Amino acid sequence: MQVSSSTILPSLQLIMASEAEKTFQRFAVFGESSSSGTEMNNKNFSKLCKDCGVMDGKTVTSTDVDIVFSKVKAKNARTITFQQFQEAMKELGQKRFKSKNPDEALENVYKLIEGKDPATTGVTKATTVGGVSRLTDTSKYTGTHKERFDESGKGKGISGREDLTDNSGYVSGYKGAGTYDKKFSN
Fold first, then answer.
1. Which segment of 1-5, 137-141, 165-169 scores lowest on mean pLDDT?
2. 82-107 pLDDT, tens per residue?
3. Cβ within 8 Å of residue 15, ≥6 positions away
4. Nearest of 40, 96, 41 to residue 64 by alpha carbon
5. What's the whole-model pTM score?
6. Mean pLDDT, the chain, whole residue set
7. What φ, ψ does residue 80 adopt, rounded to 5°?
8. Neighbours of 163 (CB within 10 A)
């Protein structure tokens, strides 16, 4: 029995659309504490396209993503629904995969976004430009600042910041501390 690809394709697109809807919801609520996950703003739409590889910087740029978003959203709206998101993915898919027919292009876009989460790694990085590493190297500290860190460069906490009093009854620097009881206890 011969089965054509056009009979399989709609059911495959339904499965991929449900995966895409899950991804849509994850990105829709990202950074938006009041969002229900049913509508997505332009910032999160751009993040989805960038994180999932739909935006490649050559055939699909950030400008293309913004234009498509503006095209599919309602005139006075600031967000898109999942239905509008699917239209946007069709347009971006045709632009990203020019050699394929629209259905295959949409399928490839769904494969790109399937199961993805918003990336948070590398969002904020500590700078080590110029003198920062020199200024934070504890081995080069001198004077009283040197006393605040141990040999490994880890801070000593309060014992490195305050002079702790020695209440043993001996003057500081006395080498025979603790020997009185041994000499005169007999």
1. 1-5
2. 889 889 988 988 888 888 888 888 88
3. none
4. 96
5. 0.57
6. 77
7. -120, 150
8. 7
Neighbours of 44 (CB within 10 A): 22
Q: Which two tokens stand for residue 155?
A: 């801070």
- Confidence band, pLDDT 50/70/90 cuts, at residue 67: very high
Cβ–Cβ contacts within 10 Å for residue 130, how many?
8
Segment 18-43 shows an average pLDDT of 83
> How far is Cα 45 from Cα 51, in angstroms, rounded to an integer?
10
Q: What size, in residues, is the chain?
A: 186
Contact 108, 93 (CB under 8 A): yes
How far is it, in rounded angstroms, from Cα 170 to Cα 123? 56
Distances (CA, A) of 105 to 11, 13, 54, 70, 79: 16, 11, 11, 21, 24
Q: Helices in the chain by DSSP H: which ranges?
A: 5-29, 42-52, 62-72, 82-96, 102-113, 132-135, 143-146, 158-161, 180-184
Q: Does residue 82 contact residue 98 with C-beta atoms inside 8 Å?
A: no
Is 60 exceeded by the pLDDT of residue 2? no
